[in-house]
Structures are given as C-alpha cells and as structure tokens.
Amino acid sequence: TLLCSLSGCPRATFTGKKGKVSGDEVLNTKFKTSDVLENDEEIKQLNKEISELNESNSEMEAAMVKLQSQISSMEKNLKNIEEENKIIEEQNEALFLELSGLSQALIQSLANIRLPHMEPISEQNFDAYVNTLTDMYTNQECYQNPDNKDLLESIKQAVKGIQV
C-alpha cells in the first residue's frame, strides 16, 4: 500500500494551512465588541423607525378608510339629489304643460272680452292681461261703477268653465 506523506495528502495540506492562520486574521474576520454594540444600536434605531412607520401607516390607513366612507356617503347623497332633481324636473314639466293648457283655455274663454286700454287677450299680451285681471279682482272697490261691474261679471262667466 501506498502511504500518503503529510505533504502530499490533501487533507493534511488543508489542515496544515488551517493551522497557519494568524491571530490578526482571526480578529479581522470576527466582529469586534464595539462593532457588535454599534450594530445593536443601529438595529434598535431601525426597529424604532419601523415601529413609527407601522404606526404612521396604520393612521394613514384609518384616514383612508374614513375618507372612503365620506366619499361613499357623498356619492350616495349626490345620487339621491340627482334622483330628487329628476323627479322635480318631471313635476315642473307636468306643471308647465298644465299651465300651458290653462293659459290656452283662459285665452279662448276671454277672447271676446276687452279690458279697458288693452287689446284682446293673446299669447303675446297674456302676462299683462292676467296682471290687469288680478289687479281688478284684488281692488274691486276701484271698479264699482256699473260698466266695470258688468265687465267683472262677464269675466267671471267666461272663466267659470275652466277646470283648475
């Protein structure tokens, strides 16, 4: 059998080289006590910063949840307002059609009745005619002479059949 010499054996070479490491090299490869303490303080500082960031994130998340809730509430209110506005618009449209029908009926009923100092009622002078009629009925004491009494009675008879 062949015997390995100490210098020719790979294990012996490794072991021999391992034994040749100096004390300075050992100190350089291991942490010094001051380095460990500095690293420990850095780790504590990092942990503190992580804690603060987590707390800040939690606060921000809570604020976001609150903000999202407010936005949802506002969107819901806006949707309700839009629906209410749509209903009001439909009601206004119906009222406008009804008013249009009433004004046409009034124009037809009063077409042959002339108010003093006015042309016969038409769409063009409708507002002025209605204002004059309103004034006549609210201030009837000013229209007490027989001609005006007859005119007021004629107007009453003319509009009597209009359904409001």
UniProtKB/TrEMBL annotation:
Coiled-coil annotation reads 36-98
The reply to whether Nucleus figures as a keyword in the UniProt entry is yes
Q: Does the keyword Cytoplasm apply?
A: no
Alphabetical keyword list:
Coiled coil, Nucleus
Q: Which GO terms describe its cellular component?
A: nucleus
Q: Name one GO molecular function term.
A: RNA polymerase II cis-regulatory region sequence-specific DNA binding
Q: Which compartments is it annotated to reside in?
A: Nucleus
Designated name of the protein: MYT1 factor
Query: What species is this protein from?
Result: Turnix velox (Little buttonquail)
Encoding gene (name): Myt1
